[in-house]
Structure formats: C-alpha cells, structure tokens
Write the structure tokens for this entry.
Amino acid sequence: MKTSIYSFPMSFKQLLFCFLTFLILVGWNSAAQAGDPISFGRRAVNEALVTRSLKAAFDVKVTGAAPPESFSITFKKGAAFIAAADTNGALYGLLELAERIHRYGRTSLTGPKITGHPFLRDRR
C-alpha cells in the first residue's frame, strides 16, 4: 500500500486547517492593533495599573474640540477621563496617565485637571 503525506485522517486535516486559520487571524488582529494609537495607549495604562496592583476605570473620548494632538485628563471618584482633540492626543493623554500611575500609584488618579499639547505646532 502506497502512503502519501496527504493521506492523513480527515480530522487531522481539519485540525491543521483550524490551527493555521487561528494563527492567521491572530496575526491579522495584532497587525491591526499595532497601528491603533488608542489601543496602544489603553494597553499602557492597563499594564501600569497591573504593575501597581490597582484597579481603576478610565475612559477616552476624541472630541475634535481642541488644537491637534492636545488632551486633558480629569478625575472623579478614582476614575480618569481623557478628552483629546484627535487619536494622537488620546495616545499622549493615555501615556501621560500610564506614566503617572507608574510613578505615583493611586494618588495619580486624583487631583486637578491635567492638560497637554505639543510644544511645536507642526511635528512633521
């Protein structure tokens, strides 16, 4: 009887197909998220919270109501709210919050409003 590398049982072929499909979809999703500034910033804040063993809510809204790449962070009852002019501003606000959580822990989730904007108007 002649055997071939293609004579695997059908269930193995199905398993291999599912596994390869999974790898492709996971890779596709990772590539899509790599280009998303807000997802990147959210991950940074979540990692900072885990590092400091904290649980806190935070929300991001892109309003378009301020100069490009600017943001503000306000606090209420231990939660942080970031309002940004655009996705880059949201990223900068999230990274600012993540850095403050790393440095100051729970006290970084209280206090007055924090604002930020580019030093240079055009970053090209």
Notes: The first strand starts at residue 58 and ends at 62.
